[in-house]
Structure formats: structure tokens, C-alpha cells
Amino acid sequence: MSRTDFFGTGVAVVTPFKEDFSVDYDALANNINYLIDNGIKYLVALGTTAESPTITTDEKIKIFDCFKQVNNHRVPLVMGMGGNHTAALEDALRTAKVDGFQAILSVSPYYNRPSQEGIYRHYKALNAVTPLPMIVYNVPGRTASNISAETTLRIAHDCNNIIGIKEASGDLKQGAQILAGRPKDFLVLSGDDATAVSLIEIGAEGVISVVAGGFPKTFSKGIDAALSSDKPITSEVMDQMNPVIDLLYEEGNPAGIKAVLHQRGLLENHLRLPLISATDDLQKRLQAVTNLLD
Q1: Which of the residues 60, 68, 166, 258 is marked catalytic?
Q2: Domains in the chain, please, with CATH?
Q3: Alpha carbon of 197 to those of 118, 128, 132, 229, 235: distances in Å?
């Protein structure tokens, strides 16, 4: 694995469900092929967008296997494995079957709201047992606990198996602090579509995106332009994408992106409770932009 495997646009892939809410593995395979065929650089299996809290252990094994088989070594794969019980997560990492994957994405502990020292010790413990290079995932809007820039830099300098962070706080000042103090080979990847270009323009290597899951060509074009400092193309693309991003998150993620993928004929539009599908009104407004892009 090279760190450059994760430059550019990656996608947090949804989990398709059938009408009876069982996992639709055929639709998942179609979605994986759609993203690879449209130029996405790498894929994340069972991140937040995949409704991972509602996926059973047996389903997770089958989903990971589906990614591995369908991908067939075409692009790097990232395995989502996070939790708020450090010891249990350590055990899961020790026994995880990671063949076919290149990295693990592990979300900061949620709900129990650890201190910054607790977050640091959590990742220090994971660093000692992870079977693959690990990417920290900071998403305070979901975890109710931000990883500060200072804590991220402690992890980056002290944990040799942790290679980067998916920084989804949307706080560009915090992102700039991480970029200024990181080891030279520590990746900073945006996890916030709305601020991804801005973070890249100050030094980040790319994005793990939601919107690119439905608009892979258009959004990747903007990210690639930002990486090559082509401001006119970046501005042109983001002028198109910013209204779409607003719509996608209007009723929460992944309701918006699943509506788009349903409109593209890639999956049935079902979410597992407590999440629900986008309203008819939002779906109509998304359909209007879906018809215009990609």
C-alpha cells in the first residue's frame, strides 16, 4: 500500500436494501462497479453513509467479501471498523479478515464523549493491534466529541500505524493546524463535501465523499482541479456542486444520496430505521439536478 492510493476522490459507499430491508448484494455490486467505472480512486466499505450501526456482524462479513470480490484489485479498499468500546474494538481488529483491503477507517468514539486524553489513548491502543494502516475519522457532528488539532497531531506523531485522518469537522482553521504540524507522510482527507476543496487548497490530499457517490465524474473533476491548483475549473465545478451538496444533506445522510442512486437505477430507495427515505419533495428537487450532472 502507498499513501498515494488515497489521494483524490474516495467514496463512502451506501448499503442498498431490498423492500424487506435485507441487504441487496446485487445492487451493492452494481454500485461498486458504477463508482470504479466513473473514475473514483478508492472506496470505503461500511462507513457512516453505509448505515453501519444497523448492519449485523454476519452482514458486515458478507459486505466486505462483496467489496473484495467485485473490486478484484481494481482500486484500493478501506474497511470501516469503529466503536466506542476500545477493548471490544481491539478484539475485533485482532480477528478481522482484511485480505483485499488496504486500510481501516476508524471513527472516534461516539456517545460516551471521551476527553482528548481518552481519544488519544483509544487510538494508541488501536495502533498496537491494527492489522492494516489506519485512518482516524473525526466527525463531531455525529460523535458529539471533536478530535482537536493537538490530539490529532499527538496521534500522528506517536502512532506509526495510523497514516492519516478523515477530517469531517468542517473547521478549516483546525484543518490548517493539522496540516501545519503533521509528519510529512500523514494524510489529511476531507470528510466534509462542502469544505473539501478549501481544505485541499491549503494542503490536504483529497476527500472521502458522499456526493461523489452519486456524481462521481463531476465531483472528481473538481477535486482533481483543486489538487492541481486549477482554480477556474475548481470554481466552475463547485458552482454546480454546492447546491447539490446542500440538497443531499437537507434531510440527513444517506437519505439524499440514496434518492439520487435510486434515480440512477442503481438501488431501491430503502433505509433501515431509525433513518427514513427522503421526502417526495426533496426527491423531486434532487431529480432535477441528477438529470443535469454526470
Answers
A1: 166
A2: 3-233 (3.20.20.70)
A3: 31, 33, 28, 10, 9
